[in-house]
Design brief:
- The complex is a heterodimer of chains A (about 110) and B (about 110).
- With about 110 residues, chain A is an all-beta fold.
- Chain A has no helices and 11 strands.
- Chain A is about 0% helix and about 50% strand.
- Chain A is globular, with a radius of gyration of 13 Å.
- Chain B is mostly beta strands and about 110 residues long.
- In chain B, a hairpin with a 6-residue loop joins strand 4 and strand 5.
- Classes of the chains: A mainly beta (about 110), B mainly beta (about 110).
- The interface between A and B is medium-sized, with 25 and 24 residues.
Chain lengths: ~110, ~110
């Protein structure tokens, strides 16, 4: 069964540093997403991406965040100048034509 | 209007019992209602999903009941097992749109 993959599984960074989280969505999917889950809380939408541009973003997704799909397979989330409150699990997801969403295993980001 | 409200927040069920988790939505444009199961340290995994043209969908021990007029849907887990212990999220979206998640229900099935 096809799956969404994410790297790294765990990223530790110092406050103020930049991090890039990587995802490889399912190859024939068209819609891509990043979600965030702070420990013990619900999964929160960050951004959706379609046709090589952002289609929707949440209030959380401010100028500190950016996404891109540089080579047609990878889908990245960049967080500039990380803050302590950015510590969370970050999930990539992709959506096929049938509307079924598949999530990656997540990247645990720890900002110290 | 984009919210999906989920209850209860936590649920303890005896092995063999029925687990019931409820969700309510507001946006009538939603046309796809999946349930995700999440184990600690893992990403949410699609469990079962329903579209509003049917009132019930069953897959094994898992059943979704859908009430379009009330804008509610629920997950029933029959013969609950300790291995079902996980966090369950309901969600909703419209085609191509973002998935909106409920707050999650932490299910614990006691042996």
């Amino acid at each position: 069964e096809p799956e969404v993959t994410q790297t790294p599984s765990h990223q530790v960074t110092q406050m103020g540093q930049e991090v890039i989280l990587r995802c490889v969505p399912i190859s024939n999917h068209l819609y891509f997403y990043w979600y965030r889950q702070i420990l013990g809380q619900k999964v929160e939408f960050l951004v959706s991406f379609y046709n090589n541009e952002i289609s929707e973003k949440s209030e959380i997704f401010d100028d500190q965040f950016s996404v891109e799909r540089p080579d047609g397979s990878n889908f990245t989330l960049k967080i500039r100048s990380t803050k302590l409150e950015d510590s969370a699990m970050y999930f990539c997801a992709s959506l096929g034509l049938a509307g079924v969403g598949y999530f990656g295993p997540g990247t645990r980001l720890t900002v110290t | 209007q984009q919210q999906v409200k989920q209850s209860p927040q936590s649920l303890i069920v005896q092995k063999g019992g029925i687990s019931i988790i409820n969700c309510a939505y507001e946006n009538t444009a939603f046309d796809y209602f999946p349930w995700y199961q999440q184990f600690p340290g893992k990403g949410p995994a699609l469990l079962i999903a329903i579209r509003p043209d049917v009132s019930e969908k069953k897959e094994g021990r898992f059943t979704i009941s859908f009430n379009k007029s009330a804008k509610q849907f629920s997950l029933h887990i029959m013969d609950s097992q300790p291995g079902d212990s996980a966090t369950y999220f309901c969600a909703a979206n419209n085609q191509g749109g973002k998935l909106i998640f409920g707050q999650g229900t932490e299910l614990s099935v006691k042996p």
